[in-house]
Amino acid sequence: MSNKLLIRNALPTDLEAIISLDRTTPDKDKADYWQGIFEHYVVKGRADRIFLVAEKAGTVIGFIVGEVRAWEFGSPPCGWVFALAVSPDAREQGTGKQMFDEICSRLEKTGVSTVRTMANLDQKLTLSFLRSMGLRTGRYIELEKQLD
């Protein structure tokens, strides 16, 4: 097995590795969520739905997920990246950047010219990474209301 980083499309057999990687993030455990995402993005995949994994020496060490979305809130078609994780042992080695560059390249091939995402203000590492990838505040803002 090569020690070189490989960015590839996710396969149905990657599900357990994705769930395991997701457990290294500050979010809640959500195995059922990932099963649904795999069904939608991997099993029934389309060109405008992208689920990539980073693999090194036969082990999945990262993933990134995105899609093309159009006309929500008047926004013309654009790429959305909504999930990203890199194994804590593989961080600061360019894995996230290579995955982000690859998903942006694939999104651009679908015809979009903008990529968007959202990040939790409390997740400083994620925000720092996204800013280093060139993401800035866009023309839309998120608004929320807590429902009791």
Provide an overview of this structure.
There is one protein chain. By secondary structure, the protein is an alpha+beta fold. It contains four helices and five strands; from the N terminus they run βααβββαβα. The chain is globular. The chain has a single domain, classed as 3-Layer(aba) Sandwich (Aminopeptidase), CATH 3.40.630.30.
Structural class: alpha+beta
Order of helices and strands: EHHEEEHEH
Q: Report the C-alpha radius of gyration, rounded.
A: 15 Å
Q: Let me know the number of strands.
A: 5
User: How many domains make up the coordinates?
Assistant: 1
Strand content: 15-25%
* CATH-derived topology: Aminopeptidase
| Helix share, percent | 25-40%
End-to-end distance, in Å? 52 Å
- Residue windows where pLDDT falls under 50 for at least 5 positions: none
By DSSP (H or I, 4+ residues per run), the number of helices equals 4
Strand order of the largest sheet: 1-2-3-4-5
Shape: globular
Question: Can you summarize the main beta sheet?
Answer: 5 strands, mixed
**CATH-level-2 architecture:** 3-Layer(aba) Sandwich
Protein name: Acetyltransferase, putative
GO molecular function, one term: acyltransferase activity, transferring groups other than amino-acyl groups
Domain N-acetyltransferase: 5-148
Keywords: Acyltransferase, Transferase
